[in-house]
Amino acid sequence: MTKENKTMDKGAIGFAIAGLLLVIAGMASPNWLRYTGLVENGFIKDQAFVGLWKAEFIQPGPPNELFDYFTELKFSDGKAEDPNYDWYFGSWMNACRALAILTILWGAGTIALHFWKSFKTQNYFWSKIVFFNYIITSLFGTCAAGTWVGSIAAQELVQNADGVEEYIWRGDYGAGLWIFWIGTGFFLPAAALAFEGGFVNHKSEQYKKLEEEFNKKIQQ
Fold it and tell me: Transmembrane region positions (predicted)?
């Protein structure tokens, strides 16, 4: 039996834990879309700060009034008072939320499996299982972010008989989305290191067996 090299597995677990923490931080951030507003005639026009669980929309009041119209949406509310914001509780937003949660659960489960089976036993079979599950975790996260990017760009805020007057997407993707997306990417090197660690130990053991058989034949 050869001496097991766990360096790559340690690196894989490190990447996976870092990725999981980034994904959690990104998902919890209220800043997946950040629109700071255009300045017109010295006044800022319309602002939007949208996350998976909370959104804030600020619209300036009439020039002769000192207050702004402030709309806050929370996922826990279940619905919006203004029909223009019904999309926030619609199917594609719920799909983003579900995929984000699934990314966290699948990633955490894979890390536990990696430590319990692949890291402790150094079994090549479990290394391959962990490899595929890290890939799946990254795909779930990519789908969550991709659904957001593809759907928020087409979401209308105001629509009349002649067509769309305003779109939600007028600013930059917020830091929360980028943190989440980067976190999902961390699972890819984790997958590669997990597979490579199991592969190297597996081949090392095979080589050791061949070496022992060869030495026995020479001694006969």
Answer: 12-33, 98-119, 131-153, 173-195
Distance CA 114, CA 194 (A): 8
- Total-model pTM: 0.80
Q: Which long-range contacts (CB under 8 A, 24 or more apart) does 158-161 make?
A: 158/84
Burial class (CB in 10 A: 0-12, 13-18, 19+), 143: middle
Residue 88 DSSP symbol: G
- Whether 174 and 32 have beta carbons less than 8 Å apart is answered as yes
Options 3.40.50.720, 3.50.50.60, 1.20.140.150, 3.90.78.10; CATH of 7-30+78-219: 1.20.140.150
DSSP, residue by residue, 53-69: SEEEEEEE--TT---EE
Question: What length does the chain have?
Answer: 220
- Amino acid of residue 116: W
Question: Is there a contact between 124 and 199 (Cβ–Cβ < 8 Å)?
Answer: yes
